[in-house]
Design goal:
- The protein is of the alpha+beta class and 455 residues long.
- It is 39% helix and 16% strand.
- β8, α9 (172-183) and β9 form a beta-alpha-beta unit.
- The termini are far apart.
Length: 455
């Protein structure tokens, strides 16, 4: 019965090997595991699975190991030093299509929705704040990047670049920052073949900084703002060095964020271990969202430990417990800032993967046009709802999670709105979606060092 339910949830596209994985319910073949993470609050499902005993319940002895940056983490998974990791959603997708590093990685589980923000330096904030509309004595949100245009223009007139930071070329943070800038009429630049800077034709220059180093880089004046996950936006508020101006939920309502990623051959070699890991993480996700966030205060204490996020409890709690501070004196309700289990947060939708692929094409990381079928095929090779359902349906059968927490879907969310530019997204029509953007590559266009070519 579980196998048939899981296959139905995949839209009937599961392969024979996936069908075999769905029936797995045995002892883990590899009980001793090392998983990697970056010091961000959205690694919480891994920390909670460890600290609340969910990994142990599944027969797993898991070591969690912080990584220096996203490249080191990616290389660790590919090279086998790590058995899996808290990973940027774009990383397994990019590796599969051969952007940067070629490797067969999969994402059998989405870790969370939302969780990021964009922060500006005090200097830039003081320049744009007087022009922003207010509502009830506070700045009206969402804040448009169009407010930055006069500042960016003044930098250009002085012959200076306007620099902002993000965490990795294929990170959600990069695409969200680019999306926000372009929606406000600012070009964040294009990538050329073999180029990881992505600054061709850029009004705003974006560079890579590891998340924990973002506040120090901002304070040093190297960048004028950044896009990063928590707690590193709230850290800027606490240090009085910057002001968050928009959350990613205001850029794309309930957007998918990190994934749990493993190598494809790991899942094939260790199917019971894979299922056990996913069950433990799903339990942790449920714990994090249970009773309207009743466990979040305990989660904050766990994450504050130096072996996990290692930031002050006050800083982590500022976004993890249903509030978000934009500047001192302006704290607002943000109950959905971190979603781990509700709203089907753990289900790896094909359409989520396709959105990332469209942004890779939009900015030149995918250098040439692809068919809609190509986008869908690549998404299905990386995002693996069949493996998610193998774990989740077993938890339903055991009475651990409710059946209603698993979506009835073919793997696509359907047409989505809730974007800051009011452009809707239908994952089944990626090329039609790309054609809607005023800023971004169009059908037939390519990028050279001299600029965009083609019609």
């Amino acid at each position: 019965m579980l196998a048939s339910v899981a296959l139905a949830g995949c839209g009937g596209d599961a392969t024979s090997e996936a069908a075999a994985a769905i029936s797995v319910d045995g002892q883990p073949e590899k009980p001793n595991l090392k998983l990697g993470f970056i010091k961000l609050t959205d690694m919480a499902p891994l920390a909670i699975a460890k600290e609340k005993g969910f990994f142990a319940e599944e027969g797993l002895n898991v070591t969690l190991e912080p990584q220096a940056n996203w490249k080191v983490l990616l290389d660790g998974v590919i090279g086998g030093q790590l058995d899996g990791a808290h990973m940027l959603a774009g990383q397994p997708i990019a590796a599969t299509i051969g952007y940067g590093t070629k490797a067969d990685l999969i994402a059998p589980l989405s870790l969370d929705l939302n969780g990021n923000a964009i922060t500006l330096s005090n200097k830039v904030w003081s320049q744009i704040k007087p022009s922003l509309p207010t509502e009830g004595g506070r700045i009206r949100h969402p804040v448009s990047a169009s407010a930055l245009k006069p500042v960016v223009d003044s930098y250009a007139q002085q012959g200076k670049p306007f620099n902002m930071g993000m965490v990795f070329p294929v990170s959600t943070h990069n695409y969200e920052l680019r999306y926000w800038l372009a929606a406000g009429g600012l070009n964040p630049g294009y990538y050329t073949d073999g180029d990881v800077s992505g600054t061709v034709d850029a009004d705003v220059k974006l560079s890579v900084t590891p998340p924990p180093q973002m506040p120090a880089t901002l304070e040093a004046g190297t960048i004028e703002g950044y896009s990063v996950g928590e707690p590193w936006n709230q850290a800027a508020v606490q240090k009085s060095i910057g002001v968050p101006v928009i959350t990613d939920d205001e850029i794309w309502h309930d957007n998918p964020e990190k994934v749990f990623s493993i190598r494809k051959d790991f899942a094939e070699q260790y199917p019971a271990t894979t299922a056990a890991m996913l069950r433990a993480i799903i339990k942790a996700q449920q714990w994090l969202d249970a009773d309207h966030g009743a466990n979040r205060a305990e989660a904050v204490k766990i994450l504050a430990q130096p072996n996990y996020v290692g930031a002050d409890e006050e800083v982590i709690a500022a976004s993890m417990t249903g509030k978000f501070t934009f500047e001192k004196g302006d704290t607002r309700d943000a109950k959905g800032f971190n979603i781990f289990f509700d709203k089907y947060a753990g289900y790896p939708y094909y359409s989520d993967a396709i959105w990332y692929l469209t942004q890779m094409r939009r900015w030149g990381q995918i250098p040439q046009d692809q068919t809609d079928e190509w986008y869908i095929e690549k998404a299905k090779s990386v995002y693996r709802p069949d493996l998610y359902l193998a774990a989740a349906n077993k938890l339903v059968a055991d009475g651990v999670i409710p059946a209603a927490s698993i979506p009835q879907t073919d793997g696509f969310r359907g047409e989505q709105s809730g974007f800051i530019d009011n452009i809707s997204f239908d994952g089944s029509q990626p090329n039609a979606y790309l054609a809607k953007f005023p800023i971004g590559l169009k059908q037939g266009q390519r990028v050279a060092a001299s600029g965009v070519t083609g019609q």
